[in-house]
What does this fold into?
Amino acid sequence: MPDTAVIEQEALARIRASEDAAALEALRVEYLGKQGSISALMKTLGAMTPEERQQKAPAIQQLRGSVADAIAARKAAFDSAALEERLASETLDLTLPAPATARGSVHPVSQVMDELSEIFADLGFAVATGPEIEDDWYNFTALNMPESHPARAMHDTFYFPDPAPKGGRMLLRTHTSPVQVRTMLADGAPLRIIAPGRVYRSDSDATHTPMFHQIEGLVIDRDIHLGHLKWTLETFLKAFFETEDIVLRLRPSYFPFTEPSVEVDVGFEIVDGKRVLGGSGDAPGHGWMELLGSGMVNRRVIEMSGLDPDEWQGFAFGVGVDRLAMLKYGMDDLRAFFDGDVRWLQHYGFSAFDQPTLSAGVGARA
Amino acid sequence: MKFSYDWLTHFLDTEASVEEVSARLNAIGIEVEGLDDPADKLAGFRVAKVLTAAPHPDADKLQVLSVDTGEGDPLQVVCGAPNARAGMLGVLGLPGATVPANGMVLRKSAIRGVESNGMMCSTRELELGDDHDGIIELPADAPVGTSFADYAKASPVFDVAITPNRPDCMGVEGIARDLAAAGLGTFKPHREDAVAGNYPCPLEIRTDDTEGCPAFYGRAIKGVTNGPSPEWMQRRLIAAGQRPISALVDITNYLMLAFGRPAHVYDLAKLSGPVVARRAKDGETVEALNGKTYTLDAGMTVIADDAGVHDIAGIMGGEHSSVQDGTTDVLLEIAYFNPESIGVTGRKLGLATDARTRFERGVDPAFLDAGLDILTALILRICGGEASEVVRAGTAPSEPKRIAFDTGLTARLGGVEVAEAEQRRILEALDFAVADDWTVTVPLRRHDIEGPADLVEEVVRIHGLDAVASVPLARAEGVARPTATPEQARERRLRRAAAARGLNEAVTWSFLPVPEAEHFADGQLWLLDNPISEDMKAMRPSLIPGLLMAAKRNADRGAASARLFEIGRRYLRRADGGSDERLALGVLLAGDKTPRGWASGKGAGFDAFDAKAEAEALLAEAGAPVDRLQVMGEAGPQFHPGQSATLRLGPKNVLARFGALHPATLAAFDIDGPVVAVEIFLNALPKKKGGGSFARAQYAPPALQSVTRDFAFLVPADLPAGDLLRAVGGADKVNIVDARLFDVFTGAGVPEGQKSVAVEVTLQPGESSYKDEDLKAISDKVVAAAGKLGATLRG
It folds into this structure.
């Protein structure tokens, strides 16, 4: 019977001295493999008497455990060193740029239309639409502007040579107001709608383009009056600009399709060369800016829209969407809206995730 | 329209300041667009007397003046005006004053070595007229030293916008009436006593066109002297932006601007025979006062005599019979023309004049005699002469409208309670007659008043819109209900999906140049009759050309790439030629897809598969059944024939087209390729079914794990891979849940005319795991299905 302590001492020393994983594996086979010397010692236990086994087994088992542990520990050290070596060879220069992903954007006109839809939905207004290539009748006649009406001349209308089914020629709608008539004819009353969309006038400079966007509002019910109009405009503008400090000035005006007609100005202040809404236009350093036209729907329009003007009345307003966008988000050239310059779109456009919600605020702050 | 405060106070007794007047004008619906005080501009200019004038020692055309400014020692002033002389009175600009005409600030200076302490001014320099031949000469009694603004009675000028429904306010008197009703003073209408004529009118006056010219009043005045008009009249006209011409012309302009009443004065010597209002003959011509010759038609009313047309009625007078400096005998015309026919004629001739503006909107039919009296009185007073009797041909409308008014409507429509007595006061101040039973008689000049709503407007605007209190609209109970239609919700979702995919939303013009539109047309285009330019003549039949033009602009500015999209309408026609606007989503990818990079090497452009990816992803967001769509051809001739396709739901319903654009398209739009595009026809998408349930289908993951098997086929080179994939995927509908193509190969080992296509098929066992014979059976089905397309399993 060899002295297990001597064997252990020698084995541990050899394990410690092993230089690589292969040498270590050779030692494992030599001691613990099927034909290994410690394995052979273990096998001798089977042939012993119980008394003899009781006496010798602990030493042999201790030897086996000790050598196995030493091999495992030495192996772990080799593995860890190997891993470290591999990782060292895999170092990346992470100051290099990651693959680029394109950033998209939502156009300010769409964003503002979404904002307005959200605000007016809360007030119970649905969104209505109508054609842009419009019949003379819907654009003018039904809005109380018969053929010879002088106000027609103020509209700088684009015409097509095509005759219109209801008389006159086909034209590009000059305002979103024909949607009033179409919606009343289709849906009757009561009614609360906004109608956003493209409109066209033969006009072009820094603040006028031959195509622009308007949003029409229409409320028809039994007891609607100018006070409701005033509240609706104040409420929507406060919600849109997310400020309580909106002061409106109503001025009597004239539109053939409303009676009474009201032009609405809003007070502003010049701050760093830009108009910032807020305060009374009469306050020092302030002014009034024309913002929109509105009024109580003319009874002739209600009549031509198939409703009884003695039963139904209401108000309508029309406001420039591009203009609202410019006032809120600070663009100063309307023409750039329709140029498709990617730099402009990236600068003034909105993230896809700037979806207007009432809880987060309908606007997207810079 | 412009008028001076001085002119206003001729009709309005008021203590109100200019600012108060301006605020009230805005409040009652007469928008003040500008307020200009000439006294501001004339600060530093004063009446001065030239004491001595001596030649400049060093310049032939200059003189050295000694000028008395009314205080201190006389100033030495160098002056180049030929009329400068000792003893004259003129206007001196002192150092520090700004010359209104050119903004030059005067300062003490030396002119050719001689000190000059100011400038003697011409009419033009002070923007008081066009004269620049010499300096202003003031009358001998002008008080030396007075500020010139005071001396010239410079009065603040209002520039107001009169809405087209208020021709009665296209004269200062009408504005004064409104202001007085609004409590800003006492209205002082101006009327003149009628002048009885001493002799019959020498020419017959009649109207043969009682529709176009219901009334034509006139009279002659003989022996007039047509010099310059008086200074007070010139001052008011200049303030109104009207250049003084001669007394007779100025008097008619004065009548128009003060009373909103155009009239005409003919040189009697140039007329022969009866002066008649009649329809023009087709092709008849007249040389108008603007020097242009107009060809008339039978729809137009004219004033003519035996020799021809002298006046395009209500729009512009003729050159031939216009009054001149030497005119001695005149015929006055004051007529009532049908507003509609004036409008039609004016539009046909493209002739916009102050007279047309007023007649077209409707002048006061009750102001014929009164107007003629004022005209006569002014001419007799200013030009002298002797008036004939008045001739009155025809009659103007004289039956006033009567409206039964319910004063409660003011609150119900106008949203403001106004006491009955105040409503009555307002209406009466505006010249309405209000009976005890509230029958309201409308003054004839108020063509705009049609019914009770108009009276509400009158009451509310004079009472003040500020008094209208905000009243909330009734709210539906609880949280606001959704309002968007499924189409609107889909459009919003698609927009944000596209932006999230890295595309920039553009809004491009609805119009295109005709050639660009025709390139994309599939049928007759909508072409504008009166485009703003040829580049904006055709309505777009597709979203791609506008995006392509935008991409080109970006490239021209040096952009490396453009990823654009737009959601908007295409303007098409129905079978009957009527308008058919269809919503579409266009995507355009141009330039670099990826720039050159440290990892990827060279930059890469976009290809048709990039377009396909956008098309499929966006269609999926739009709720289209993307896995059921067929890829077919016929994307259109604008696309590369071998690198484009349509996506269809069923063989006829094209949901989208995509691919690389045809080189000919790129050439036509002058842009470098490759450029790929997508157009999704949103109107063709199936409507969302059910529209109801929020609950998803039950989640039921299979109990057993799926297995995959790979198949490699040899197929004819021209067999679309999609067809093979569809056949394989459909070979065993129970077991095959997916078929994914993972390799396409031609070359070594693949016979000529064929290609190798490798497909990974995913099989999902049901109740029990597959046995070898199950897998063999499925495999056989796959091979058989592929075999029908000419595919053989690769050994």
Remarks:
- The radius of gyration of chain B is 42 Å.
